[in-house]
Amino acid sequence: MSRPTSLLRQHMHEALEVIRLTTQSSPSIGIILGTGLGELAERIEQECAIPYENIPHFPVSTVESHRGRLIFGRLAGCPVVALQGRFHRYEGYTLQQVTFPVRVLFALGVRTLIISNAAGALNPLFRRGDLMVIVDHINLMGDNPLIGPNDETLGPRFPDMSEPYSRRLIALAEELALELRLKLQKGVYVALPGPSLETRAEYRFLRLIGADAVGMSTVPEVIVARHMNMEVFGLSILTDECFPDALQPLSLEEVLQAAREAEPKMTQLVTALVARLWTQQT
Ligand code: HPA
Asked: Is the shortest distance between the CB of 122 and ligand 1 below 6 Å?
């Protein structure tokens, strides 16, 4: 007797069916375009784009300016699929909703996931505008996207987290950054639910427990990607300095400005990484 299909599998299947009415493309590389990777979307030679609201079970964004799209196309010649627009816990979505798009990327055939975000710098040696490769994370969201019934056909009940971020991809990115003469920091990303920013005492605590950067995204998506054994590469743009003894009030405009300024570096590195992965595959 065949195993009963989980509700999650069913939802993935329904989303996939609708996407397949538009494209038969099955890229092996997926990209989550966070704050600061908007520019990369323009570098993708688009084949088609599907608005999130057309895909069954995708969370519906309430903010008009934040309308998400699933983009299929080629980056540096390599077929990719990109999520333009992501969902955050603080918007009121469950972590299952936040990570459903990652499940759909897997159903499409994605096995390597590149994730970007904007984060605050906690390591005093890091500066606003720096790029940081995520080498590990701390989940302080007080929640986990895998809570609930587990579908063993997708991944194990207790997924291993000894190497959430692929050492192979980190090494490759370091090599490329040297070639491109890009300064690249490496560090641990800590995720909090937000939306309020952290107090000085909280920044001191986060530094003390070993974090180099802080943000409100990425970790749920990485957990779900690793649940399905995808290879993950994470990159943060450090948009502000969260140093408890020299803290300035944070303006969203400053964050966006820093993200805009660092964006070309991020775009360059991700494009080079995808190009390299493509030559290794072909
Ligand atoms: N905290 C502090 N600074 C930040 C964050 C955050 O979550 N995201 C981007 N800059």
From this structure: no
Say yes or no: CB of residue 120 within 6 Å of ligand 1.
yes
In sequence order, the β-bridge partners of residue 133 are 186, 235
Place of tokens 């990109």: 82
The answer to whether residue 146 sits within a structural domain is yes
Q: What is the CATH number of the domain that holds 151?
A: 3.40.50.1580
The per-residue pLDDT of the chain, averaged, comes to 93
**What is the model's pLDDT at position 102?**
98
Is residue 208 in some structural domain? Answer: yes
Residue 94 carries which side chain, given as an amino acid letter? T
Question: Would the CB of 36 count as within 6 Å of ligand 1?
Answer: no
DSSP 102: H
pLDDT tens digits along 172-191: 999 999 999 999 999 999 99
**What are the residues facing 189 on neighbouring strands?**
137, 213
- State which ligand 1 atom lies nearest to the alpha carbon of 194: 7
* Nearest Cα residue to atom 7 of ligand 1: 215
Domain-embedded: residue 2? no
